């Protein structure tokens, strides 16, 4: 004789199945590209996106949401925007773009996302910082009152640079702009050795934007031979990497030292790319 379950048991079974039916589904918020150009994509439909959140285009290219407006979102494209066209789908990832920071980064070469590319293994004992944060206001900042020695007599005597100051190195091709930046890093070796406490040490962050891998490798060798890697961090965004993210990443790594009572020099080479 075949047994048939009672009505109450059948109802309980159905309710249990219906309750757990949609628990394995994930709902993604998707938008569409309205316009794209100069590395910036305007996207409509991402109403719940967060500032600094990473998104993914239909072509696989990623970007970061920076400009949040009422009708659309301005997204900085990582890499070339030639594969993105009007009407393409854009998906949220739900993750805020951040990079590792701290003294564990010293002596390491990382890409624009903070992933080590020097073959020395994974990073240890570090914290993570968002790449897009609000800059301190005028009231919170100190006036430029402390000099930053570059070790170059022409610079330190004629156009001295102060801590907290930005300086543009401008010139034609092959005139020694990069050489000035590298010499400044190398000269910190002697100056850091004179410091009696950590607050007098100047840490260096070199951001290579759009440079060849061979050029970055030569720089690593120069700094290594001069024992300058021990107080330096290299962020390498080569031609195949997301160059727009590299300056933000390098700045986030340098701000770690600022926020902990130390000094840091950040070099962007070069911003024209």
UniProtKB/TrEMBL annotation:
Keywords: ATP synthesis, ATP-binding, CF(1), Hydrogen ion transport, Ion transport, Membrane, Nucleotide-binding, Transport. Residues 27-94 form the ATPase F1/V1/A1 complex alpha/beta subunit N-terminal domain. GO terms for biological process: proton motive force-driven ATP synthesis. InterPro entries: ATP_synth_asu-like_sf (IPR023366), ATP_synth_F1_asu (IPR005294), ATPase_F1/V1/A1_a/bsu_N (IPR004100), ATPase_F1/V1/A1_a/bsu_N_sf (IPR036121), ATPase_F1/V1/A1_a/bsu_nucl-bd (IPR000194), P-loop_NTPase (IPR027417). It holds the Pfam family ATP-synt_ab. Its main location: mitochondrion. Residues 151-273 form the ATPase F1/V1/A1 complex alpha/beta subunit nucleotide-binding domain. It is found in: Mitochondrion inner membrane. Mitochondrial membrane ATP synthase (F(1)F(0) ATP synthase or Complex V) produces ATP from ADP in the presence of a proton gradient across the membrane which is generated by electron transport complexes of the respiratory chain. F-type ATPases consist of two structural domains, F(1) - containing the extramembraneous catalytic core, and F(0) - containing the membrane proton channel, linked together by a central stalk and a peripheral stalk. During catalysis, ATP synthesis in the catalytic domain of F(1) is coupled via a rotary mechanism of the central stalk subunits to proton translocation. Belongs to the ATPase alpha/beta chains family. This is ATP synthase subunit alpha, mitochondrial. It comes from Triticum aestivum (Wheat).
